[in-house]
């Protein structure tokens, strides 16, 4: 016998009668071809992989003799693997490319992934659902002491093809309970945020403010009460306020108060005068999530307080939930902070908000060069995950006099005699040694050197600058070397490497 919504007893939470789950990622795999290798590839390719490649590669390389392409030493068959984020269609992600075991390919350096069709791991073949595609230049991490040139990444080269919906599954199918869950979610998170599609499932859309905090949103959903009487609600809020300001599970209390919505605002405001820093901070953050800026000054003070352990949390909260003007103003000021980690946290938030304080230009259709002139510290920051980016903080950064720096493989040399403000850039192109090295001059401005190295050797249009077409991995490894050799007076920081766990 089915129950009615009224029979859901007061105090029942969504998490009591339903499971809320959505994977962060879906592991995908495929095979493809990396080309444009300077004789470091191989013809090794198992027959079944060759047949598979023939089935789709012509869509990326029309009018190509696939057998001839695979059999050359300027290409290599690779295993392509990645973690597709379930954040929605159009999301970009990193993919890993690796030479199959036993293949004779010696290096994927300077390579280009021609195109890969990615399907869920374990579902090899053209008949299974296509989840994502990938292509782009291969990044070899040459900053780490141990370099394996048979494994690389396509930074931000994966593209998600489908939207993914979050599903609430009732532990016991019940139309009335499903309807009650839908109605409560709509009441709390807005119209069209949920739809009961059956007696056992409710489909929902993640609110925009939670788009980057999916797991947090799931926790809030599970803690959401379905049917509280007025008296019970007042008691629940009182108990949670006591828990938040006491010695109980403060994380759980904060999430539960957030789930209650505006009904909790009045009591949360009272905690802003608390002598306990943690209580005060949590109350201010929860209020901001609930569209109240009553505690904004507390969060702002935490972001600027060099002794606060909550600085990055404050920046995240203000950037995610405050008015855009407040968030931008805060992050711009923090670009001059003495703590480089805080400076970078503010920079990442400004990037997300597309703020004009971070200017960017595409170099060689390969990576983005960014200028952050508001930075107080002269810093070179490079990414090793997501979109390839080189950010120059506190610029312009100029090279020191009497400069001589060479890349580890000897392919790039920077030279500037004492008293000469210009820099000679010498480039030896792998695979074309017979032509000899090529040299060009540029200014001592580090940004100009990066442009010269990264721009295409041939002009695509008359307004483009000519360059050497060096790869992103080569350039950032050279920047690291320049800082180590004191060729420039700046710090060098490389972002985290791609996190692709295949287990």
Structural features, described:
This protein is of the alpha+beta class and 503 residues long. The chain has 15 helices and 19 strands. The chain has helices at residues 14-17, 47-56, 66-71, 175-189, 214-222, 230-245, 250-260, 265-270, 277-289, 296-304, 311-321, 324-334, 340-352, 446-454, 472-484, and strands at 18-21, 25-35, 76-85, 92-98, 112-120, 132-137, 151-160, 166-170, 194-196, 201-204, 359-363, 367-372, 379-382, 389-393, 403-406, 412-416, 422-427, 438-443, 491-494. The strands form four sheets. It has a six-stranded antiparallel beta barrel. A five-stranded mixed β-sheet has the order 11-12-14-13-19, with helices on one face. It has a four-stranded antiparallel β-sheet with strand order 1-8-10-9. β15 (403-406) and β16 (412-416) form a beta hairpin. α6 (230-245) packs antiparallel against α7 (250-260), α7 (250-260) packs parallel to α9 (277-289) and α12 packs antiparallel against α13 (340-352). The two termini are 44 Å apart. Mean pLDDT is 89; it is low at 1-6.
Largest sheet: 6 strands, antiparallel, barrel
Strand content is: 15-25%
Count of runs of 4 or more consecutive helical residues: 15
SSE class: alpha+beta
Major beta sheet, strand line-up: 2-3-4-7-6-5
Low-confidence stretches: 1-6
- The overall strand count is 19
Mean pLDDT: 89
Q: What general form does the structure show?
A: flat
Distance between the termini: 44 Å
What helical percentage do the residues reach? 25-40%
Rg over C-alpha atoms, rounded to the nearest angstrom: 27 Å
């Amino acid at each position: 016998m089915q129950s009615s919504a009224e029979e859901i007893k007061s105090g029942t939470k969504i998490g009591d009668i339903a499971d809320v789950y959505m994977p962060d990622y879906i592991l995908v795999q495929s095979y493809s071809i990396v080309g444009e290798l300077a004789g470091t590839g191989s013809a090794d390719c198992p027959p079944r992989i060759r047949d598979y490649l023939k089935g789709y590669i012509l869509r990326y390389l029309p009018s190509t003799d696939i057998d001839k392409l695979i059999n050359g030493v300027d290409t290599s068959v690779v295993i392509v693997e990645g973690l597709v984020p379930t954040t929605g269609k159009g999301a970009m992600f990193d993919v890993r490319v690796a030479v199959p075991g036993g293949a004779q390919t010696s290096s994927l350096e300077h390579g280009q992934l021609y195109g890969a069709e990615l399907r869920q791991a374990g579902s090899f073949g053209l008949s299974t659902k296509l989840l994502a595609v990938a292509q782009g230049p291969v990044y070899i991490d040459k900053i780490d002491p141990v370099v394996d040139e048979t494994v690389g990444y396509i930074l931000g080269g994966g593209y998600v093809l489908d939207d993914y919906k979050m599903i609430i599954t009732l532990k016991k199918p019940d139309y009335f309970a499903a309807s009650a869950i839908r109605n409560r979610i709509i009441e709390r998170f807005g119209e069209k945020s949920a739809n009961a599609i059956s007696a056992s499932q409710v489909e929902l859309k993640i609110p925009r403010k939670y788009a980057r905090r999916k797991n947090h949103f799931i926790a809030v959903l599970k803690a959401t009460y379905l049917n509280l009487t007025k008296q019970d609600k007042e008691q629940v809020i009182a108990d949670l306020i006591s828990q938040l300001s006491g010695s109980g599970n403060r994380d759980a209390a904060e999430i539960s108060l957030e789930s209650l919505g505006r009904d909790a605002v009045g009591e949360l405001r009272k905690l802003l005068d608390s002598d306990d820093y943690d209580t005060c901070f949590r109350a201010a953050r929860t209020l901001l999530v609930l569209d109240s800026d009553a505690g904004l000054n507390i969060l702002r003070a935490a972001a600027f307080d060099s002794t606060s352990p909550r600085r990055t949390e404050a920046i995240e909260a203000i950037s995610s939930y405050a008015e855009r003007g407040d968030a931008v103003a805060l992050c711009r000021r923090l670009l001059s902070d003495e703590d480089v980690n805080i400076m970078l946290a503010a920079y990442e938030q400004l990037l997300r908000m597309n703020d004009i304080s971070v200017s960017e230009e595409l170099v060689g259709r390969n990576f983005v060069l960014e200028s952050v002139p508001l930075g107080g510290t002269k810093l070179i920051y490079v990414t090793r995950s997501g979109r390839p980016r080189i950010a120059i903080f506190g610029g312009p950064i100029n090279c020191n006099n009497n400069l001589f720096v060479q890349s580890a493989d000897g392919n790039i040399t920077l030279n500037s005699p004492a008293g000469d403000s210009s820099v000679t850039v010498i480039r030896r192109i792998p695979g074309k040694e017979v032509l000899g090295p090529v040299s060009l001059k540029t200014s001592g401005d580090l940004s100009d050197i990066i442009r010269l190295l990264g721009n295409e050797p041939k002009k695509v249009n008359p307004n483009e600058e000519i360059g050497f077409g060096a790869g992103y991995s080569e350039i950032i490894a050279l920047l690291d070397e320049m800082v180590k050799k004191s060729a420039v007076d700046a710090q060098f920081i490389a972002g985290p490497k791609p996190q692709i766990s295949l287990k």
